Write the structure tokens for this entry.
Amino acid sequence: MIGAAQVRDGNRRIDLKKKRMLVILIVLTLCAIWFQSALHREASTNESRWFFDRIRSIMSFLVGPELATEILLRKIAHFAEFFMLGTESLLLCILIGRRDLRSFSAVFLLCNFCAFLDETIQIFSGRGSAVSDIWIDTFGSVSGILFVLFACAVADTLKEERENRRSGRDRDA
């Protein structure tokens, strides 16, 4: 028979594994973001063009052929990278047990620092930087943070409802 101490120890190991996996995922996301920024203009353009050629029909269907451009694809990529970074960072923060405004603000500031660093890397790679990309990155990270907060609120509400139903059954029995 498994004792309560063994269950707690097992849960701690699972939480530690989740934390480690999230840290690794955050590092990989940052490496991917900054690797893309370090590409020279020609390599970056070729990569975007290659990817755009493969999804042009999907983008044309979604936004119309006149708006389906490589530039839009690049802006979507900026948003998506930082959406992931905001999501992963806030999940780690919550898993560590920090669910307060100060911690959420720290995640926001960390993501913004990464956005500024991303654009700085582009200056040194010969591509130049754009303030609009920093705004897109910021919007992506804020969207990721809000997504996690919304998902947590829904999960907490469902958990509370489940507990209320259980306690209601216990009183009836």
Q: What stands out?
A: The chain has one domain: 4-172. The chain has a mean pLDDT of 88. The two ends are 28 Å apart (CA to CA).
